[in-house]
Design a protein that fits this description.
By secondary structure, this protein is an alpha/beta fold. About 40% of the residues lie in helices and about 20% in strands. The protein has helices at about 50-70, 90-105, 115-130, 165-175, 185-195, 215-225, 230-255, 270-285, 300-315, and strands spanning about 10-15, 20-25, 30-40, 80-85, 110-115, 135-140, 145-150, 150-160, 205, 210, 260-265, 290. Strand 6 (about 135-140) and strand 7 (about 145-150) form a beta hairpin. It binds adenosine monophosphate (AMP) and magnesium ion (MG). Adenosine monophosphate binds near residues 20, 165, 186, 270 and 271.
């Protein structure tokens, strides 16, 4: 039995929902000892689920070994194994789950299935000290405004179509941008946007508390092709409109819940412009603005390991034979008994 509060109890966390295969070691008191990762880079176009899964299977051994090496622990020191159980791309999730099941069985330790979205929220809370935030979780596959109410992470608003990060990535590819030195497309758009001077009008779509980015994406690509502005101007305008939409919904959730913090998490949290816009509304409502550090912003194993530890300490684990992945596992369906005691 692992000691619940010991610095010598460790969780191995495996993340594999989309393009990243991550493995990390986190101690039961919340110290991230290692956070190894390898990202699948498609030769062209977006993520091909089976190709990404093949990538994950190929790099798994190397990434797992790196996680153990950096943490300076041996496989036998692992107390529990946590994995991303969903939501995500089926073939990718199944590859990570297979590795997790094999390791948990071989080491004879408990297996914990983690909801990927909860992982992003919990790692943001751990890294920033936020206790009860309104969270804006923006990534390649998800866009959710959430806060904890009555035992669950409730969804106050979300995208009705594509995710914020996906919108930026597809836009970047459509206008012919290239990723330099492995920088994500969102970061490339951000850099260009800083040089934009003219605002090009683009559709702003907030429906109730939900958001839509697909029309905005099409309009931004068209604005570039029909030369309504320079590429820099269109990047600037796309960010202005999309981030204003996100800020509006987050502010309304904050006004309604009166939470003490605003937490920005997920890969798009790296964006300085989005950070500055959310900081303004947090200040106006007397809430502390918290942003996940860059190294923990995109998909990573540490967020899965830490959430696995929280769940395990609340008595949760899953038998290997019942550890099916759940590609559509919604945030608000997650039983999260640990949150109230945090
Ligand atoms: P994730 O899905 O959490 O792994 O995050 C990946 C997403 O974050 C991709 O859509 C990236 O383009 C996006 N991203 C990364 N850095 C930035 C940035 N500086 N600005 C906007 N988006 C970003
Ligand atoms: Mg990713």
């Amino acid at each position: 039995m692992p000691d619940h509060n010991s610095a010598n109890s460790y969780c191995l966390g495996i993340e594999s929902t989309a393009d990243d295969f991550g493995a990390a070691i986190v101690s039961f008191e919340g110290k991230v000892l290692s956070n190894a990762n390898d990202t699948y880079m498609p030769k062209e176009g977006g993520i091909h689920p089976r190709e990404a899964a093949r990538h994950h299977a190929e790099v798994a051994e190397k990434v797992l070994a790196e996680a153990l090496d950096k943490a300076e622990i041996k496989p036998r020191d692992i107390s529990i194994v946590a994995f991303s159980q969903g939501p995500g791309l089926g073939p990718c999730l199944r590859t990570g789950a297979t590795a997790a099941r094999a390791l948990a069985s071989y080491l004879d330790v408990p297996l914990v299935g983690v909801n990927h979205c909860v992982g992003h929220i919990e790692i943001g809370k751990l890294a920033t000290g936020a206790r009860d935030p309104v969270t804006l979780y923006v990534s390649g596959g998800n866009t959710i405004v959430s806060a904890f109410e009555a035992g669950r992470y409730r969804i106050f608003g979300e995208t009705l179509d594509i995710a914020m990060g996906n919108c930026l990535d597809v836009f970047a590819r459509a206008v012919g941008l290239r990723q330099r030195r492995g920088a994500p497309f969102g970061a490339v758009v951000e850099e260009l946007a800083r040089k934009g001077k003219k605002f090009v009008s683009l559709p702003y779509t907030v429906k109730g508390m939900d958001l839509s980015f697909s029309g905005l994406l099409t309009a931004a690509v068209q604005a570039f092709r029909s030369k309504k502005g320079s590429l820099e101007d269109v990047c600037f305008s796309l960010q202005e409109v999309a981030f204003s939409m996100l800020t509006e919904v987050t502010e309304r959730a904050l006004a309604h819940t009166e939470k003490p913090e605003v937490l920005l998490t997920g890969g798009v949290a790296a964006n300085k412009k989005l950070q500055s816009m959310l900081e303004v509304i947090a200040d106006e409502h007397g809430a502390r603005f918290c942003v996940v550090p860059l190294r923990l912003a995109a998909d990573n194993g540490a967020m899965i390991a830490w959430t696995g530890i929280l769940a395990y300490k609340s008595g949760m684990s899953v038998p290997v034979e019942k550890s099916f992945v759940n590609v559509k596992w919604r945030l608000e369906d997650v039983y999260a008994p640990w949150v109230e005691g945090q």
